[in-house]
Amino acid sequence: MKVLVTGGAGYIGSHAVATLLEKGHEAVIIDNVLTGHLPAVNQDAVFYEGDLRDAAFLDDVFAKEKVDAVVHFAASSLVGESVEDPLKYFGNNVYGMQVLLETMRKHDVKKIVFSSTAATYGDTNVVPLTEDLDTNPESPYGESKLMMEKMMKWCDGAYGIKFVSLRYFNVGGAHPDGRIGEDHRPETHLIPIILQTALGQREHISIFGDDYPTEDGTCIRDYIHVLDLIDAHLLALEYLDNGGQSDIFNLGSSQGFSVKEMIDVARHVTGKEIPAKVGPRRAGDPAVLIASSAKAKEVLGWNPTRTDMTDIIGDAWRWHQNRTNGYDA
Ligand code: UDP
What we know:
The protein is of the alpha/beta class.
């Protein structure tokens, strides 16, 4: 298949491109490199630098490349920033989807796999989360992703554009070759912050609250290896190619780790002390978020194999050691 990967210079998008190419597909990347990185662009892919909201640019890419399907990662993705600047999220994410769907419709591209999020569910006490639960996003980020899902649903009904929406839980790890990995500016995610502390780039990691109703008082999340996550995208492409109906799937490993447990695993993997201090809670953090991934396993035949936390943190650690300044190095 020839696949357009929007956001292919980002953390998850660059891993999707690597896997598509490894499996013999062709990849065309669109990225405006505002949060993505030029060195993350795979040399064996076709790359167009530009913004999704630029309809003439997108039209040109579709006309030239004649792709079979789209995997859509390009989006703003910081929960806190979205609360402060919701219009950035509705503009970049929702309007970006509008232009993308219009262009797909015009060029008769009928398959899209979409990078969605567990933030569509909102704060909930349900463990594990299944796809049939109510959605009630707590942030403009989660809301924008839910709106994008709904846009695809209506475009399926009207124009026959089939979609698979994949709701991610916490993604970590990196390609074992150590050449691509996670590099966000600013970094807000737990695993890279722990590993930057292991490298001595931060004095300590702040644990955001230890008074949650969990065994050790810190928040529990469901961490999944980025390559297991990407495997599900390839299965979703196959599923749509075989005539599968539009649908939504959770992607997680269905096992929970607390913040303290994550720091302990990282101490073991890195052999470093990793100083940690307990600080206040971060607004909007639910105590426990764990996915049920039964549906993805059953319908897509997904079988995550990198579920050992030592491997997830170990692969991320290889990247952080290789590129101590991320893509700047
Ligand atoms: N976290 C933390 N300190 C940090 C960053 C994150 O204690 O410096 C906690 C955060 O409160 C959450 C978990 O680690 O419980 C995972 O956070 P992350 O931002 O990586 O992902 P999220 O669950 O927010 O999508």
